[in-house]
Design a protein that fits this description.
- The structure is a single chain.
- By secondary structure, the protein is mainly alpha-helical.
- The chain has one domain (37-141).
- It has helices at 22-31, 44-55, 60-74, 105-121, 123-132, 135-141, and strands spanning 78-82, 93-97.
- It has a two-stranded antiparallel ribbon with strand order 1-2.
- α2 packs parallel to α4.
């Protein structure tokens, strides 16, 4: 089965270290070739490149473009939502990757951490993110 894929895929995690479901996804892919296995393209090397690219983001538009491309190319949905208690720092934002079979536990932690580091360096992105969701405008009208 692995030889049939036209691209390199992520190596298996050590036993017991992850519950990503990589093997189940490969089994599903063998049974139904139309199974969405885009996430397997994210090898460890590609993940390092992705994290470096995320950390280099300098504007809200770049962040939106990157999350859109991650969804299109890998099927990873990134959600950035503000806390119901308000956002005073970047820690007030919840950054999550949607659960997905084949998505490694470490990747689910590394990508939000990279986004958080980017937002720490560029607070203007946080303001633009809040403005895009009309949170700052709603707060000033109350």
């Amino acid at each position: 089965m692995l030889q049939a894929l036209p691209y390199p895929i992520r190596q298996q995690c050590p036993p017991g270290a992850c519950s990503c479901g990589r093997d189940e996804l490969l089994d599903a892919l063998a049974a139904a070739p139309e199974t969405d296995a885009r996430i397997l393209r994210l090898t460890r090397e590609e993940e390092k490149r992705l994290i470096a690219r995320i950390e280099a983001i300098a504007s809200y538009e770049e962040l939106e473009h990157m999350t859109l491309r991650m969804e299109q190319l890998l099927g990873m949905a990134v959600r950035i939502t503000p806390s119901v208690r308000g956002v005073r720092t970047v820690r007030g934002l919840a950054i999550e990757l949607a659960e997905r079979r084949g998505l490694c536990r470490k990747t689910r932690q590394a990508i939000p951490a990279a986004i958080r580091r980017c937002l720490d360096r560029h607070p203007d992105i946080v303001y633009a993110l809040l403005n895009a969701r009309d949170l700052l405008g709603a707060a000033s009208s109350s």
